[in-house]
């Protein structure tokens, strides 16, 4: 039986046609390949293989849905629309299909058609459907019905903020700035960056320039966000801002999909969130926040080329272009080309004093062990800080690491302590500074207290627990170190350094056969070349002989303290049973 004409059109849209239009057997291989591509978030391959599978099974809703999601994820809405419409003609309904149909209706301004489809069961989820329906009512010219829709959402438990935020945007879109501001000025309503900008635009329309500037500076400061800085400059120059966060009902739909994506981000699977951010960007190609989110989501899924392609759609003259360049550099480095990534970031840094740009460059240099240059770059970023705030702790911490690696210990210690002043209970900083002092044999009581506190804050961090054990080992407190190191090994069972440390502790307490066993394990966990050579040498001649070869202090146990350090009882471990030790 030949394929129906709509299916031929569908195959053309997907970029493939069967060699023969004769009926084919189900292509199990194509389906399995498509599923593997989905698992790997390889959307291009997923579309290719789903398309091939559809040719032999053209009414399979699972295959059509897979191809549809793949096209949305690629940002290719023309073929997605073809698939969604074919599914509709076939009586097939899915959430992704409803997203595409809603977006297409909004794009064309077909708001009555959207509302009819909603009544016919083309549904996404209750929150999105309700928000979009309210915007559709506005688009159809029924403002009272739109406001009633937003009010109903605002009265729904858990959705209050969504309803109020979108109601404020809708009011502002039709020029009712007074009532829009009444909503957005409520301190109980927590809004995102776009909501703050929306309020500033509304205040400007109300000729409250100073209030607009105050709102922006209180939320963003200055010198942090080029777009915000430009808005503040315009306000100070006496310009009246136009309201363009949402200009019409189509923009309203885009804002719904973006708002939901922002709420999902970090809570749902990246692949699911990407569908919403891509839809927002399709509806409004100048929705830079949606574009940047899509790039970040693709980057998180290791789809670096797709991420770079998304970032490149941000125009060079857009104030947020710096964020796109940073995203491109991070994706480029993740692909394995750190040289190009650093080159791009250096070029970007030439034309700006933005803290975030110098931080991105410093981080890239630090990751690639260019520590002296990283420290100098962090200096530039810190020089832009007018008033230390808790959010800057990471910057001081990063510079501290760069200084410590270049053996500028006084500067490093000052940076770590500055970071702790801003964030006193930050376990990474406590651990790093404490361990650094132990290795230098200074301030030992303070150092151990810091590492213990870090362990109490992050008891499931194998690296921090390892630091506590290794600090005790360095001090000659081998028996105390043993159970703690065993626990660290349980938390990080395939980490070469932690496993190597376990071998050293076993050796120090006389369990030499178990030590050799752990060193053998460490070799199998891909240590660095330098680590591997030292571990192999310990297996061959033992730790004592290696320390002698290195000119290091020999192992020497100290008397146990009156109050030895132990992990809480519920942090105990049960290691895999090592081979029996005969003491040799």
Question: What does this entry look like structurally?
Answer:
It is a single chain. With 584 residues, this protein is mostly helical. It is 69% helix and 0% strand. It has 32 helices and no strands. The longest helix is centred in the middle third of the chain and has 16 residues, at 249-264. The radius of gyration is 30 Å and the shape is globular. Residues 1-24 and 570-584 have low confidence and may be disordered.
Keywords:
disordered N terminus, about 575 residues, Serine Threonine Protein Phosphatase 5, Tetratricopeptide repeat, mainly alpha
Content of β-strand: under 5%
Biggest sheet character: none
Helical residue percent? 55-70%
Q: What fold name stands as the CATH topology of the domain at 460-584?
A: Serine Threonine Protein Phosphatase 5, Tetratricopeptide repeat
Protein structure class:
mainly alpha
Shape: globular
Total count of helical runs of at least 4 residues = 32
By CATH, the architecture of the domain at 460-584 is named Alpha Horseshoe
Instruction: Output the CATH homologous superfamily of the domain at 460-584.
Output: Tetratricopeptide repeat domain
| Highest-level CATH class of the domain at 460-584 | Mainly Alpha
Roughly how many Å apart are the termini? 78 Å
User: Which regions contain 5 or more consecutive residues with pLDDT less than 50?
Assistant: 1-24, 570-584
Any idea what the radius of gyration is? 30 Å
Nearest-integer average pLDDT = 91
Number of strand segments: 0
